[in-house]
Design goal:
The longest helix is centred in the N-terminal third of the chain and has 20 residues. The protein is α/β, with parallel strands linked by helices and about 425 residues long. Helix 1 packs antiparallel against helix 4 and helix 4 packs parallel to helix 10. It has 14 helices and 14 strands.
Length: about 425
């Protein structure tokens, strides 16, 4: 059987040009987030299957790459259910592993703990533009901080990073899960149906207000509740005034501090920000993960046509491991999508330094080669990237490739 040259579906080979951009972005992430006090950690790519299937990962739990038991533990002949065959899986995000990590190491970590994680995750998803089955994820999380300082700094750190990568005019959409629930309660939807309501609401940007109304009616909800619910969205603006409107509208149902915290986050970020973006209150923002308990946010970019990051507060997840809830808030950027957008716009890494090529004839004398190697070593000490290559028959094609890789100076050496 012939061996296959192409990667497995949903995976990809990374070419040198992209790898250069990826490494630059990774370094920029570490540098920028480091200035905000986030510390790098690492967790295994394999997690216990119980942790991955704890009903906290939303639809991602349907996309797990499961790993069979190994060695003597794998008894195929006695297997009657999946648990007899599977005991672990590849992580589908970095939040569940972080929660386990913190639960296991909290006594040795500062409070609050500001974590930076970068690593591959895996989802058996349908591949599409900017989405793969194996992809790099980059998260920052603040654990042990109950105030909105956590949300504010997460947004400021991430937008500072995007600004440094030359992204402009993007939007941070923000909402709160408590506000979502209060709106549904105020409208008269039964509490056990809130998740169904939110799943339909999450389609607002695709099917519009009328489409949401039709789907809610299709689920059998009372028309009075639907009209009352959707009527609020017609009145809410995307700024602080919208937050104040919903605070007044939901008086007696919504804790006023929820709206006040949202207002403070929006106003503070707008005042302190260093990048070119806007904050937008979006009461239709749901976020798919069921573990969110408070403020939630997404990064929307017009040039991508969707989200390139998101996150929120998840104060109850660590308690699933320890029995005691710990304040937690995180934000993940879509690393693969960011890199894709940079490549599509022909992004050039600033201050890359000089790149020089020595093209050598195949049979160059040893003493001449030694002279070139010494000269190249001196230039490298001064920060020049030096590539020494044997000249090919098609010298023009070879030069064109090197120019495409950013080499601008050429010195050719022939035998005397």
């Amino acid at each position: 059987m012939a061996l296959k040259k192409k990667p497995v579906t949903g995976m990809k080979d990374i070419m040198p040009k992209e790898m250069e951009i990826r490494n630059y972005v990774i370094n920029m992430i570490r540098e920028t987030y480091g200035t905000f006090g986030f510390q790098s950690i690492e967790t295994p790519c394999v997690e216990h299957i119980e942790n991955l299937c704890s009903k906290q990962g939303g639809d991602n739990e349907k996309l797990i790459f499961k790993i069979m038991k190994r060695g003597e533990k794998l008894k195929l002949e006695n297997a009657t259910q999946e648990a007899d065959l599977v005991d672990s899986g590849l992580r589908y995000d970095l939040t569940v592993p972080l929660s386990r990590y913190y639960s296991n190491n909290a006594n040795d970590l500062p409070v609050p703990f500001k974590a930076l994680q970068m690593g591959n995750v895996w989802r058996a998803d349908r591949p599409q533009r900017g989405r793969f089955r194996q992809f790099m994820q980059c998260d920052i999380d603040t654990l042990g901080e109950a105030t909105i300082l956590a949300e504010t700094e997460l947004i400021l750190a991430t937008t500072t990073l995007l600004g440094k990568l030359d992204f402009h005019n993007f939007t941070i959409r923000i909402n709160d899960r408590k506000l979502l629930k209060a709106m549904a309660q105020y409208s008269g939807f039964p509490q056990e149906s809130f998740d169904t309501v939110f799943i339909i609401l999450d389609k607002m940007d695709k099917i519009g207000l009328d489409g949401v109304a039709e789907e809610l009616a299709g689920e059998g909800f009372m028309q009075e509740s639907i009209d009352k619910y959707l009527g609020m969205f017609k009145e809410i603006t995307s700024d602080i005034s919208g937050v104040r409107y919903i605070k007044e509208k939901l008086e007696g149902v919504l804790d006023a501090s929820v709206a006040e915290d949202l207002e403070t986050i929006i106003a503070t970020v707008e005042e302190v920000k260093t990048a070119d973006f806007r904050m937008a209150f979006d009461p239709t923002l749901v976020r798919g993960m069921s573990y969110y308990t408070g403020p939630i946010f997404e990064i929307a970019m017009d040039e991508f046509g969707g989200s390139v990051g998101g996150g929120g507060r998840y104060d109850e997840m660590i308690g699933k491991f320890t029995g005691t809830n710990t304040p937690a808030c995180g934000l993940s950027i879509g690393f693969e999508r960011i890199v894709m957008l940079l490549l599509e716009r022909g992004y050039e890494i600033p201050g890359k330094g000089n790149k020089k090529v020595y093209l050598l004839e195949k049979n160059l004398p040893a003493e001449k080669l030694l002279e070139i190697l010494k000269k190249a070593a001196q230039e490298r000490e001064n920060g020049t990237k030096v590539n020494i290559a044997i000249m090919k028959k098609n010298k023009k094609f070879q030069k064109d490739q090197l120019i495409a890789d950013g080499y601008t100076e050429f010195e050719e050496f022939y035998r005397n």
